[in-house]
Amino acid sequence: MTYSRGGIEGKLDMKSRFFEIQTDRISYLQGDVVLVTVSPKLTNLPPFESLTLLISCFGQISKSNFDAKFPPNAKQQTKNYFELKNDFPHRVYPLSYSFTLPCTAPFTGKECSFVMGSGLIFQSLKLFATHTYRIDLFVRQGGVMYLGDQKDIVVRQTFNEVITTPLVSFDLDNYQMKITTDKASYYPQEFGVVLFEVNSKTQRATSKAKITLFQIMEMYFEDGTTVIKKPLMTSEVLPFQPYYYGKDHLC
Questions:
Q1: Together in a domain, 140 and 197
Q2: Closest CA relative to residue 36, chosen from 57, 60, 61
Q3: Most CB atoms within 10 A, among 92, 119, 191, 216?
Q4: Of 115, 55, 60, nearest in space to 91 by CA
Q5: What domain of life does the native source organism fall in (predicted)?
Q6: 17 and 54: one domain?
Q7: Total domains present in the chain
Q8: Domain span including residue 142
Q9: Which residue from 20, 2, 21, 18 is spatially nearest to 10, judged by alpha carbons?
Q10: SS3 for 121?
Q11: Nearest to 59 by CA among 157, 184, 179
């Protein structure tokens, strides 16, 4: 039997699809308990006395790294790291069972950095992870194995474990400013805080600084990439006195 992106290929008869799978949710976090319910399709159900049901579930993780220095140079890696098989002979249907997802995943990544003009240093690590757990149904009857429906469920990794907090550092002569956020990412309607740190080692007062926070959305298509950039906030910081050092928030 072989699998394709569009479905299942191989010597499969639609009449062999005896069961369907339902999960209690469509999306899960790592460590969650998944409740699976198997229900028969009465129109194609064979005699129970010769039926054995084998449910196979395995997890697959897909990881993409993007280095902002040489876009687009995505490096993607896919790995299977979780597998579970359950045999259900002579059970009463619909039947339900549960299993617990792994609490960890083999994430690896390195921080990338590059230098822009005027001494601006930006450090970032973008690590996008999507877990897909596929549940397959196999029906044994008379020594013949039939493959039934399959179910994909998505497991999301928590943001703060995959994306580092962005940091922008200005280092000009004896004057340094660092700008960061309180978290690596935010959900819609969530309140975010932009923090900055100033360290002036000069004998002169500095002029006021203007800081703008942008929202950047990247959409990837087969024929190219579209980038939408929109300013979210603009703030002006008062001039700093000689040898000033301090921390504050912008919003």
A1: no
A2: 57
A3: 119
A4: 55
A5: Eukaryota
A6: yes
A7: 2
A8: 2-109+129-160
A9: 2
A10: strand
A11: 157
